[in-house]
């Protein structure tokens, strides 16, 4: 985990480097610098700052408080610093106030976090220069549905969820998609989360004839269900969502349990060299580090292309494909990622990896 004292020293070096040579593309990095979101902000600043330094561009760090009505001040700071493009933006509150002013200044904003569908709809309607380098709201459900229709359509499927808003909405989206495709689950239920055992639940799944189970719940509940199914000798193929990316405790997850989740980018082959370089600087490539690094890389390359072509930077973001440590990135005309970043992963040993079977 990134330690704030260590990251502060790293960012101080980046700041000194930025002061010593104002060159290349001037990129604003908007991220929280104070608690309670300082750790996430440090991840954004470390990843983006590393890339900006490596590319010889100029970094302008802007504090993000994530408070209501704070965005206008962030935009003013970016405009006054004469940045050409800004990355980061952990919070929708910042973007809501900043985007109108960024539009007037022709400064595109690339968020690595905000998923609000309504905000993007407003941005497109008003011509605000927002680009989303994060999953859109609904992308998780879309990938779960794709996986189930591809791999489970011929099997008896159960859908269960934990009663939380996210678990219920995710599972309901899956159920609606199945019904639209002429598939009816053999079992649906809401289970009580946080229980030490779920033997009664897995026995009910068996009586219903379910062999494939999608669970809209958290990691520990799914681990308990998988453990109890194995103890009862009930063969279940279990799939969860992005909530599976959590600490593997108190109940360890059994090998073979699958999840539709964002990958641990540092484990990807295309990230290996960058991850090693970050670790050499004392930065663990976790959380927002690599996505923010990728956003800064995209911003820098688009800025260079815009200068060379004599065109607005926003046009370069729409008209290019970028090779980054988190994979190939391109934006649609709706300023969303052209490819869904969620992937089908399988727990093996101590991490989630692409499944051994060819079902990716």
TrEMBL record:
Entry keyword annotation includes Plastid: no
PANTHER family, alphabetized: AMINO ACID BINDING PROTEIN, LEU/ILE/VAL-BINDING ABC TRANSPORTER SUBUNIT
Family designation: Belongs to the leucine-binding protein family.
Ranges where the Leucine-binding protein domain occurs: 69-349
Originating organism: Rhizobium laguerreae
Presence of the UniProt keyword Oxidoreductase in the record: no
Signal peptide from the UniProt entry: 1-22
Keyword line: Signal
Top-level taxon in the UniProt lineage: Bacteria
Pfam families the UniProt entry points to: Peripla_BP_6 (PF13458)
Name listed for the protein in its UniProt record: ABC transporter substrate-binding protein
Parts forming coiled coils: none
InterPro entries attached to this UniProt entry: Leu-bd, Peripla_BP_I
């Amino acid at each position: 985990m990134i330690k704030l004292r260590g990251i502060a020293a790293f960012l101080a070096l980046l700041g000194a480097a930025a002061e010593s040579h104002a060159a290349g593309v001037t990129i604003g990095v908007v991220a929280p610098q104070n608690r309670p979101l300082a750790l996430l902000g440090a991840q954004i600043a470390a990843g983006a700052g590393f890339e900006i330094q490596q590319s010889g561009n100029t970094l302008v760090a802007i504090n993000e408080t994530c408070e209501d009505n704070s965005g206008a001040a962030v935009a003013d700071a970016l405009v006054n610093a004469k940045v050409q493009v800004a990355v980061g933006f952990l919070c929708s509150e910042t973007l809501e106030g900043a985007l109108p002013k960024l539009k007037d200044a022709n400064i595109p904003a690339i968020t690595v976090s905000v998923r609000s569908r309504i905000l993007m709809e407003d941005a497109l309607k008003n011509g605000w220069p927002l680009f989303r380098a994060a999953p859109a709201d609904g992308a998780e459900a879309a990938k779960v549905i794709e996986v189930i229709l591809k791999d489970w359509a011929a099997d008896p499927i159960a859908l269960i969820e934990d009663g939380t808003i996210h678990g219920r909405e995710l599972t309901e989206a899956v159920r609606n998609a199945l019904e639209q495709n002429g598939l009816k689950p053999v079992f649906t239920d809401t289970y009580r989360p946080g229980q030490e055992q779920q033997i009664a639940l897995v026995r009910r799944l068996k009586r219903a004839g379910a062999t494939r189970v999608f669970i809209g719940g958290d990691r520990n509940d799914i681990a308990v269900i998988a453990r109890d199914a194995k103890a009862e000798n009930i063969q279940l193929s279990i799939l969860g969502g992005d909530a599976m990316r959590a600490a593997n405790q108190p109940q360890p997850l059994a090998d073979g349990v699958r999840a539709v989740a964002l990958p641990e980018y540092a484990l990807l082959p295309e990230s290996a060299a960058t991850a090693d370089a970050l670790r050499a600087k004392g930065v663990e490539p976790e959380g927002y580090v690599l996505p923010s690094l990728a956003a800064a890389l995209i911003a820098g390359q688009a800025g260079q292309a815009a200068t060379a072509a004599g065109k607005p930077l926003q046009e370069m973001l729409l008209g290019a494909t970028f090779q980054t440590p988190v994979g190939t990135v391109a934006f649609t005309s709706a300023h969303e990622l052209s490819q869904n970043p969620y992937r089908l992963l399988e727990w093996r040993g101590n991490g989630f990896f692409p499944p051994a079977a060819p079902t990716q």
